[in-house]
Amino acid sequence: KALQPLFKMSYSCSKVGHPRPGHPYKGGNFSAFLPANKEGRKTAKLLKRAFECGLTFQIKSCNGEERVTWGLIPHKTSWDGGKARNGYPDAQYLHEVGTVL
User: Fold this and answer.
1) Range of the domain at 18
2) What is the pLDDT of residues 8-24, one digit of tens each?
3) How far lies 34's CA from each of 41, 42, 68, in Å?
4) Would the pTM count as exceeding 0.85?
5) Which of 11, 79, 80, 91 is 20 to 30 A from 30 via CA?
């Protein structure tokens, strides 16, 4: 069984440091998967803290529209498919994301 943090970002207005400060950007729904074990729960707490600090997402400009995208912190967005598809199995993921966090 897996933990599944769900992030929902709605429309909002960008701030200083974003591609076009003061302009609206389009949000979205973002899901990430973690194993339901001690290390997975520890990682979930670190990811929550990163989210609260504004490190989980970034705003990118695409075709004249600003959109929310994943930031530089790696997330497993699929329960399968392996490392190449941001999924499991990936024996090194929790260590790698822990290092980034």
Assistant:
1) 3-54+73-100
2) 555 454 555 555 666 66
3) 8, 10, 22
4) no
5) 91
